[in-house]
Amino acid sequence: MAKPKPKNIIVTCAVTGSTLTPSMSPYLPVTAEQMITQSVDAVKAGASILHFHARNPDDGSPTNDPKVWDSFIPAIRDQCDAVINFSCSMGATAEERLSAAMVLRPEIATVIVGSMNYGRFKKAHDQGVSEFKHEWEREFYGPKSYHIVTANTFHKIDRMIDICLEQNMLMEFECYDVGHLYILDYHLQRKPTMHKPIIVQFLTGILGGIPSSIEHLLHMKQTAENLFGSDMELFIHGTGPQNMKAATFGAMMGTNLRIGQEDNLQERPGRLFTSNAEQVTKIVRIMEEFDIKIATPEEARQRLGLPHPAPKVARLA
Q: What digits encode the pLDDT tens for the residues 29-49?
């Protein structure tokens, strides 16, 4: 019997995040213009999904203000056909976390499926930065950063899932450690109307979660496959300097992957990536060396069960 043909790899580009900061790189997109340019260029380079956070344009601090999201999302939708994915991690309640997504209507909203100690202070160390331009950055990585526990209770997870199901919005389930996969399985067993395939994203390499080394990624992958089988599209990415290696490991194992300026700013020690497109170009080149094919946005939509082209969403007044 002939072996099934390998699926093409879906590349997600995480354009900007909330835990790396402008003092770490002048190439980290902050303004609407920077977000639009870097996003469209990343899709031209080979990304099929764009994962977003939003930032205050004046100082780069994280925000969930729908007006800030609206300053760049409609233009990106107009200029490319990538799948739009919102991080929904800011806020104490499920409703607060999904507030911008409810207005801007991304095709995918993220749901974090477990709590953990979150060593944010280590991210500054990993990027080799100890001096900051903005006061919010100094506070962000200061003594308070040693007290952070990400609170993703069973109730909050369940409520976010219910809201997304009510709104017919796909979810990407973010898992920071192997136990989070079992938490996700617990919730999915109680949601018979869940869209298939489910989208599972590993976020590895954060102090407090599982590391990004190959043996840990393989263990996570095998566990996810045992739990969810073929009803899953799996994405791998590692935060920090191990990001490109983790993406390569994922591609070699046949999973989808994520790279981008959210997760790591360094091409190598002493050299910054100059754009998200440069990161996409690098991982695509690595995949080409092993004759691994990448998926187009249209193929990604088909695999995820999304309409093509994407439905238009009215801009805020």
A: 999 999 999 999 999 999 999
